[in-house]
Amino acid sequence: MTDQPLVETVHPLVRRVLAHNPSPFTSTGTQTHIVGQGEVAVIDPGPDIPEHVANILKAVEGERIVAIVCTHTHRDHTPAAGPLAQATGAPVMGCAPIMADDGSGLEAGFDHSYSPDRIMVEGDSVSGPGWTLEAVFTPGHTSNHLCFALPEAQALFTGDHVMGWSTSVVIPPDGDMGAYMASLEKLMPRDDAIYFPAHGDPVTKPKQLLRGMLGHRRQRENQILRTLGKGAASIPDMVAQMYVGLDPRLEKAAGLNVLAHLIDLDQRGRVRAEGELWSLAA
């Protein structure tokens, strides 16, 4: 259990309920956000933990859920959509389903039970009294990832695209580093004053964080190129050199992040694969 209160008000239009699924990939757990008053939207209902579904229902007691909105279909984000819809009759909407498995074996994995009533694309919206959620397509962490803008609060619900505690893992073949970087760049011109991520605290200086995230990924890319400048190397060798002191539970995820960078660099003609070894392109 956790000392986290059942429901926290983080903005006059936004409440959040924390799922009890802490891990090296989820921080303290997945945060389900409730938007509005009276007639509300639930963003990222989270894992299918009966206690969490009950906590969401308790948090909106006396209100009506009019939309269950999903940013992407990792298993810590969408499985509770079905039980919540069954309990309330609310439609499930947001990202498109992904039927393939990422093959990583990581706990994130895709939720193949996700079956939306409405698939949303860039610019689509859903609204209620005093609130509007507008879809912003941000592929990269997953190919189906959406953020949702709440213009009435100058806020953006960023799912796992931008988190308040760590950078996102990008897992090929569905995750795409080039798309992820482009999606970070896409947010830069926006006027959002605050981000509400699915993991970690609200982000009150979005542009500063975005610049830091972009810089971090570019540094990682340069680190890979410098490492390969010393000679061909395997991904485990690169992880050992680049992620000193890494939690062993995160080594596989780090390797997949490196692979995502390598695929992007390969597509840009900077590196090449030779079996399990990678080297600089001639």
Can you walk through the features of this model?
- There is one protein chain.
- This protein is an alpha/beta fold and 282 residues long.
- The chain has helices spanning 50-59, 81-88, 177-187, 206-229, 235-242, 251-267, and strands spanning 8-11, 14-18, 31-35, 39-43, 64-70, 92-94, 118-119, 125-128, 131-137, 146-150, 155-159, 194-197, 233-234, 271-274, 277-280.
- Helix 2 (81-88) links the parallel strand 5 and strand 6 (92-94).
- It has two domains: 8-204, Ribonuclease Z/Hydroxyacylglutathione hydrolase-like (Metallo-beta-lactamase, Chain A); 215-280, Arc Repressor Mutant, subunit A (Orthogonal Bundle), CATH 1.10.10.
- Strands 1-2-3-4-5-6-7 form a seven-stranded mixed β-sheet, covered by helices on one side.
- Helix 3 runs antiparallel to helix 4 and helix 5 (235-242) crosses helix 6.
